[in-house]
């Protein structure tokens, strides 16, 4: 039995394992489980550039997800697959940069007027919640798409779950850009 067949037969379990591992890595970085001095240290300019690069990656990923949704609505399955695969690649790129920076320097602090801090906390909370909720949904839909021939996908939960995952994912990317703007531009 090959990997694709195994994933097709156990998609939910594989998605659950990948989600658990991914979220464990996120929380381990955020909680700084690995001492920063054990990590390879990039030059300060690189570490400082990560939030700016990640904001750009998030903005591009938002557009790519929207275009991917439009492609499937137009019936262009091949373009949809390429765009959603690209969006997942951008998400992975974002996550590697984010986790590396947070593991090295910790979360970015934010201080502003109380009303702005409250708005920031609400936006950040929604962004983080959507990102966490999206992880298992994304793994599940992507694994369904990867492990099934295109002709079989309509008989899977890919469309049902993807219809929920895609807008949540796009909103999470958009709110990530808003968080960036609040931290690095507005305040």
Automatic annotation (TrEMBL):
GO CC term (a single one): membrane
UniProt keyword Coiled coil present: no
Top-rank lineage group of the source organism: Archaea
Pfam families: DUF420
Segments crossing the lipid bilayer: 52-71, 83-100, 120-143, 164-186
Keyword Cell division belongs to the record: no
GO process annotations (BP): respiratory electron transport chain
Keywords tagged on the record: Membrane, Transmembrane, Transmembrane helix
Signal peptide location: none
Any GO molecular function: cytochrome-c oxidase activity
PANTHER family given in the database record: DUF420 DOMAIN-CONTAINING PROTEIN, HYPOTHETICAL MEMBRANE SPANNING PROTEIN
Protein name, entry field: Putative membrane protein
